[in-house]
Amino acid sequence: PLALGLYTVNAVYGDTITMPCRLEVPDGLMFGKWKYEMPNGSPVFIAFRSSTKKNVQYDDVPDYKDRLSLSENYTLSIRNARISDEKRFVCMLVTEDDVSEEPTIVKVFKQPSQPEILHQADFLETEKLQMLGECVARESYPEGNVTWYKNGRVLQPVDEVVVINLQKIVDKSTGLFTMTSSLQYMPTKEDANAKFSCIVTYFGPSGQKTIQSEPVVFDVHYPTEKVTIEVLSQSTTIKEGDNITLKCSGNGNPPPQEFLFYIPGEAEGIRSSDTYIMTDVRRNATGEYKCSLTDKSMMDSTTITVHYLDLQLTPSGEVTKQIGEDLPVSCTISSSRNATVFWIKDNTRMQTSPSFSSLQYQDAGNYICETTLQEVEGLKKRKTLKLIVEGKPQIKMTKKTNTNKMSKTIVCHVEGFPKPAVQWTVTGSGSIINKTEETKYVNGKFSSKIVIAPEENVTLTCIAENQLERTVTSLNVSAISIPEYDEPEDRGDDNSEKVNDQAKLIVGIVVGLLLAALVAGVVYWLYVKKSKTASKHVDKDLGNIEENKKLEENNHKSET
What we know:
mainly beta; Immunoglobulin-like; 46% strand; repeat
C-alpha cells in the first residue's frame, strides 16, 4: 500500500512490524543502514549492517532497545509495535560512489475493547429526560466512533428526547484512545422491554470494522392509567361460608401498593394493600364492590352474589305417633336460586313427598329431606325425621285342621309397636305352651303359631304385651276327632278386603244350597203323600216296603 505515493506498512498494535528494503543491492555495496525521521526532519539512525564483515550494529536509541532485527537482505523488523512506531523509516544502501535511499511509512492499528454500557440508570421514567448510561470503548487507535441503538435501530439525536455526547480521551503513555458516549433519553411506556445497545466503529489494517455491546433492558416507570378489581376464587360461584379475596391492580409501573376498597354497608373506603380478604361471608355480602387509588381516582367495580340455601323441616328429629293418627310434614326451602328437593326414606329415594293422614306401622322409618343448588358447587342441605309409629297389641286367632287329620294349627296374628311379647296358655290348667313358631316382624305385624293334637276340647289363650298394653284373646279348639273348619290366615292389610269378599261369597253359596235342599225336601214330601193316597189298592206289604224306602231316602236327603 502507498500513502502519499510512499510505501506503507500496516501493523497491529503489539505485533511485529516488518519493513523490507525495497532497493536493489548494488555492486560494491559497503553497508546498509536504517533510520527514521523526526517530526522536524532530522534523522535518527537505528541499525547498521556491513556487507563485508557481515556484522550488525544497533544504535543506542531507547525506544527501540532490544526491539530491532536487521536481516541479511536488509529487512528491518520491530517487535511489539507501538503507536510511537508510526514514523517514516528510510532504508539506505551505501557504495563508494553513491548512497541510495527508499522510505517506508509505518501505520499502527489497535482494535478497541468491546464497548460496555456503564453508569446505567436504575430505572427510567416516562416524560422525563434522564441519563440512560455511558457507552465506553477503551484502547483504540486510531480513535473510533460510537453509535447508540434501540431494538436494532439507530438512535438519532432529537432535542429534549435523545441527547448524545461523545468524548475521546488519549492515554499519553500509550497513545491509545478511550471513547465515551453518554445517552440522555426520554422514554415512553413502549420502551418497557426495549433493548438498548451501542456500537463502536474503528479502523483496522484491513479497513473499517465494528464491535457491539451487550444489550441492556431498563425498567421503565409510568403512572397508573387504569384500575381493575377482580374476585380471586377457585370456584365460579360463591356460597355462604366461603372466603372472598378481592384484588385491585393498576396498570402503572411500578404498580400501586395501596388501594381503597369500598364494601357494601361501609360508608368510607377501607385502605388496604392490593388484596382485601373477607372470611365466612353471609348472604348480606351480596352487592357491588369497588376499589380506587388512594387519592380516590380511577375507580373500578364488580358485583358479587353470595348464594345461600335454607331448609326447614317440620317436624324434624325423632317423632313418636300412634297408629291411625295424622302427621302433617312440610319441607320449606329458601334459596338464592331455584333449588332441587327430594326425599329419601331408609336410604331409598322416594318418588313423592311423604303425607300421613292415617299413620300405619309401615310409615315408620328415617326420612331425609335434601336440597341442592346445582349451579353452586358444594351447596347442599338436608334434615332428618325419625318417625316412630306406636300401637297397642291387636290379636286375631285362627285355627285349622291339617291335611293329615292328625293335628291342628292355631295361629295368633299380632299387630303392635313396640313389638309385643307373645305367650300361649291352656285355659283351665294355666299351663304355658313354649313350643311356638314366629314369623318375621315386618311393619308392626307378625304371627305366632302352635301345632296341637287335643284328645278333648280345649280353650287356648294368646297373650300379647308391649309397653302400651296387655291384650288377651281365647279360642275354643275341638278334639282332634272333630274336624275344624279351615280359617284362612291373615295375609296382611293389602289382602284383607279380598279375603272378606271371598268369605261373603262362600257364606252366600252355603246359604243358597241349604235353601235349595229345603225346598226340594218339601216338594218330595208332597209327592210321597200323593203317591200313598193313589196306591190304596196296591199290595199293602209292597206299598209299605216302597214307602219305607222313600222315607229312608227322604230322611237321608234331609240329613244331607
